[in-house]
Amino acid sequence: MKKTKILLIVIVMIFISGTITFGQSGTPISELYLKGKYSVTCTTEIIDEASWEVCGFCNYKKDPKDTNSWTEAKNVEMNFLKDTLIITQDDRKTAVPYTRNPNNHSFSFTFEKELYHFRMFFIDKGKRIIENSDGRVLLLEQAN
């Protein structure tokens, strides 16, 4: 009876170990971290019949004297280096430090005095959706 219990425990442990290994084998850990260049597709949220919003770094001010004048950047890119994020808006580049939460692979940075905290979702290889803490969503596609 004692040998049967030990054998049963060993079989259960092997089964659990195999299940855990199988469950984690789908995506290499290296792909959970954003690294390199990604083109950014900005999404627009409809607030009501007369207003809409995009993520803060998807638009930029045309005239520094007119704080109500905003123009959407046509070519937005994010380049994830080891601890620096380079944000390109058309021809304007800004480097900002960023931090990554290794537990859930979210990341945070401050851009133009505003704190951004993004969670990440996978679509397929080279494509990610990131969501800011205020609900703004961006599509990232890895650049070649």
Number of E strands: 12
Helicity level? 10-25%
Number of helices: 1
Biggest beta-sheet profile: 8 strands, antiparallel, barrel
- Separation of the first and last Cα atoms: 62 Å
CATH architecture label name: Beta Barrel
Looking at CATH, which topology would you report? Answer: Lipocalin
Content-based structural category: alpha+beta
Quick one: CATH class? Mainly Beta
Q: Total domains, how many? A: 1
Outline type:
elongated
Which residues form runs of ≥5 with pLDDT under 50? 19-24
The percent range for strand residues is: over 45%
Q: Write down the secondary-structure element order.
A: HEEEEEEEEEEEE
| Overall average pLDDT | 77
- Largest sheet strand order: 1-6-7-8-9-10-11-12
What's the Cα radius of gyration? 22 Å
How do you describe this structure in short?
By secondary structure, the protein is of the alpha+beta class. The protein has one domain: Lipocalin (Beta Barrel), CATH 2.40.128.
Offer a few descriptive terms.
alpha+beta; eight-stranded antiparallel beta barrel; 16% helix; two-stranded antiparallel ribbon; elongated; Lipocalin; 144 residues
Task: Present the secondary structure layout.
Blueprint lengths: L1 H23 L11 E7 L2 E4 L2 E3 L5 E3 L8 E3 L3 E5 L3 E6 L2 E9 L6 E5 L2 E11 L2 E6 L4 E6 L2
Antiparallel strand pairs: 1-6, 1-12, 2-3, 4-5, 6-7, 7-8, 8-9, 9-10, 10-11, 11-12
Structure description:
This protein is of the alpha+beta class. It has a single domain, classed as Lipocalin (Beta Barrel). It contains one helix and twelve strands; from the N terminus they run αββββββββββββ. The protein has an eight-stranded antiparallel barrel with strand order 1-6-7-8-9-10-11-12. The protein has a two-stranded antiparallel sheet with strand order 2-3. Strands 4-5 form a two-stranded antiparallel sheet. It is elongated.
